[in-house]
Amino acid sequence: MRICASLTAAAVLAAGAARAAPARGAAEAAAQEAFSRIDGEQLTAVQAQARFSQLIASLAEAGLSRSGTALLASLAADEKQSEEVRAGARAQLIARAGQDDSLAQAALTEKIAPGKLPAAIAVRLARGHLERALQLSPPEEGGDFIGLQPGPSLVPASGEPLDKELAREMGAPQQEANGAAKPQAPVPETDRRALRELDAARALAASVPAGDPSEGDAREVAGLAALAAGDAESAAKEFLSLAQLPIERGDEGASARRDAAFLQLARLAYQGGDDSRATALYEKVGRGAPEWLDALFEASWAHFRRGEDEKALGNLLTLHAPFFQGRFFPESFVLKALVLYENCRYGDARRALDEFDRRYQPLQEGLTSALEKLTTPQAAYEFLARGAVGLQPSPAREEIGRLEQELQPDVAAVVELAQEIDSIDKRPAAFRASRLVARMATSARQARLDLIDGAGRKLLARMGAERAELRELLAQSLRLSYEIAGREKELATSNEPGLAAQPQRDPPQVKDDEELWPFQGEYWRDELGSYRYQLGQRCRHARPALPQAAKGGPAPAKVAAEPGR
């Protein structure tokens, strides 16, 4: 019975293949016919649309859908073709980009003059240009640690007066809320190609009209591109406008964008030295938002600069809860050590640095070792294709595996295109020798190389950014370790009184509807974000808070590190 069943199954498969071969042959013939009526022809817009629709449908039926996208990109960029043919190819690319076709999006981003686009497509292409700009000119190592002075003014991009209630929440004085924007800060010198990519991203985002469903996404991209270009004023306007957009009930995407806007506004306020405004904005990021932990961590820096050390350490206690073990906050250990050091708790500070070094020194070394092997985008893509298992066991394996998973859609597009290219060699000789295949196969091979290069560059950029961050933090950890050792030596050899005796402190005051519970190593979800760390007083002299821009103080001094990632 098993043999009979196997023979029956084989017969069914053979019959299916026999039926599929004529169908595929008919589709190949139809695709050749449609292409011959497009290539080099003078067509009307209606004719071009009809013939391109027939071509794409036939290629899809023949199993050459991604190769068809490469062909469209080639025709759309071919100046020898008539304007109607190029426009028809471009329209098909736009339609495919709207269906999340990564190859079509890449072609429109890199090779095709986009012209007027549907709003949703314009936003996707703008994100593509922004990512390319950051790959071409990544933030300089250590450059995130220098604050802006003065901070950007709070004027929405629309030019309309800022809502009074929102202005008060943002900390903007009335005359600033209703006044004109301050002159923009000069754009720093960066790579020219990166600046062109940023200009393209901002232009595409600006093409989305007000009131369009994609307006929120467009303002977010515009704000991020302005930040990357060093235009803090324009970034603040875009994020303020985004924060003011109305949100319909149940629109989780709009709520997430508003939370992200508050986070960016808080960062701008922090970098401008206005820690009071920054903490108020960080608190507006919702607990359910993906950015909540980022806001909690970055607010710790603002609390530290205001002298609110117990609140800063309480936030870090939440970050280190077991619920968030998968999140990447290496800087939190350095901040914890810095706060403890400033409060003369040198042993605790040293232990925090030891924990940081134990966790992240091997990771930094693993990333460095991997980057030394992945010297080209081609090598990086080959690693992606193999997966994290292709990397020798190392402390960085898990982190690199996470990055590799994020880029799997890019790998899938390359694999599918390669399979189609290989299948051409197995098709009838007449089809292989046709004008269609001569044009399409060349375009598909080049598109495959472009996709490989793009995916490899993405991986190298993300690994390089993490490696640079860890290297900077390790250097800060080493400097702080020297400071701690020097201070301990000074106390040991000095005749002056050492650390102050730790007095008995009254318990913190809580509101009538709150209750104080001592932390005993057990985390509860409803308590996350509300911890306070009781430091006591060990220094002979209390640490003064750093000056804030809102109080007219000078530019904030450079500290161990500042948020921005």
Question: Can you offer a commentary on this structure?
Answer:
The chain has about 575 residues and is mainly α. Helices cover about 60% and strands about 0% of the residues. The protein has 22 helices and no strands. It has helices at about 1-35, 45-60, 65-75, 85-95, 100-110, 120-135, 165-170, 175-180, 190-205, 215-230, 230-245, 250-270, 275-280, 290-305, 310-320, 330-340, 345-375, 375-385, 395-405, 410-425, 430, 435-495. The longest helix has about 60 residues, at about 435-495. The N and C termini lie far apart (about 65 Å). The model is unreliable at about 1-5, about 10-20, about 140-150, about 170-180 and about 550-565 (pLDDT under 50).
Span of the ends, CA to CA: 64 Å
Binned strand content: under 5%
Main sheet record: none
The total beta strand count reads 0
Q: What is the gyration radius calculated from CA atoms?
A: 29 Å
Number of helices: 22
Mean pLDDT, nearest integer?
76
Structural class: mainly alpha
Low-confidence blocks of residues: 1-7, 9-20, 141-151, 169-181, 549-565
- Element order: H for helix, E for strand: HHHHHHHHHHHHHHHHHHHHHH
Outline: elongated
Helix content: 55-70%
List keywords for this structure.
565 residues
Describe, in short, the structure shown:
The protein is mostly helical and 565 residues long. The chain contains 22 helices and no strands. The protein starts with a helix and ends in a 72-residue tail after the last helix.
What are the SSEs and their pairings?
Blueprint: H1 2-36, H2 45-61, H3 65-76, H4 83-97, H5 102-110, H6 119-136, H7 164-170, H8 174-178, H9 192-206, H10 215-228, H11 232-244, H12 252-271, H13 275-282, H14 292-305, H15 309-319, H16 331-342, H17 346-373, H18 377-386, H19 397-406, H20 408-424, H21 429-432, H22 435-493
Helix pairs in contact: 1-2, 2-3, 2-4, 3-4, 3-5, 3-22, 4-5, 5-6, 6-9, 6-10, 9-10, 10-11, 11-12, 12-13, 12-14, 13-14, 14-15, 15-16, 16-17, 16-22, 17-22, 18-22, 20-22
